[in-house]
Amino acid sequence: MKLKFLTIILLTIFVIKANAQNTLTKAEKKDGWVLLFDGKTSANWRSPMSDHFPEKGWKIDNGMMTVDPQKRDAPSGGDIITVKQYKAFDLKFEFRTTDTANSGVKYFVYVDPKAGPLGLEYQVLDDDKHPDAKLGRNGDRTEASLYDLIPAAKDKPYRPIGQWNTGEIIVYPNNHVVHYLNGKKVLEYDRLSPEFAKLIAISKYNHYQGFGINPEGYILLQDHGCVVNFRGIKIKEL
User: Fold this and answer.
1) Residue 115: exposure state from Cβ atoms within 10 A (0-12, 13-18, ≥19)
2) How high is the pLDDT of residue 13?
3) Dist CA 117 CA 46 (whole Å)
């Protein structure tokens, strides 16, 4: 009886700790923060091509939302997007990569009839081992970069695989955008500026009309066929 009671207590403590990162303080709630992931359900998320969360390819367990790739000959779950679209916001999230992992958090996402979901991407990557880190221009495909457009600062506080990182994307009402990694600003840009338009023009996105400049869009977590954990996903509209 005592052993059973102790087991229940330990399981309860484990669940509380697992979901600790997926809660809001009273101050955060008062300040307008909203959870996009409660640590237990897929509420607030769906497939870009349907109104439902993927039945396969994603796993929710231990307070984490995990890209859970299927076998090579089986379909993956694909990307997932928020149910709601956002204009100006402060988005915070925690992520943990695995060996040679590649993923991303995209914003101002829209669904192109032919190409599928497209949007500006906060790169999530194993910089040390994934080949994408050495591609692109000047490191613009490395961790926390604006993928294929603007590289993150060289002195970014990058934590290696197996450790949790904290990402943050702030889009101000004037369309000034800032990326943070583990609390440090690693890049910034003006989304509707002529300089940004020039970057789009020389990128892989140059043939997608309206890419990156839509007035609102979805938040997306990318399934790139690699195991990546997410938690602590919360947003405040500005």
Assistant:
1) exposed
2) 43
3) 12
- Quick one: which of 77, 85, 88 has its CA closest to 109? 85
Domain holding 67: CATH number?
A: 2.60.120.560
Residues of the chain whose pLDDT is less than 70?
A: 1-18, 70-77
- Bridge partners (DSSP) of residue 188 are 178
Residue with tokens 């695995």: 98
Contact in structure between 178 and 170 (CB atoms under 8 Å): yes
Total domains in the chain come to 1
Instruction: Report the alpha-carbon distance of residue 62 to residue 139 in Å, rounded.
Output: 34
Q: Are the beta carbons of 45 and 82 closer than 8 angstroms? A: yes
Radius of gyration of the chain (CA): 18
The 10s digit of each residue's pLDDT in 113-134 is 888 899 999 999 988 888 887 8
Range of the domain at 151: 2-237
Pairing of strands 64-67, 228-237: antiparallel
- What confidence score (pLDDT) does residue 233 get? 98
CB 109 within 8 A of CB 115: no
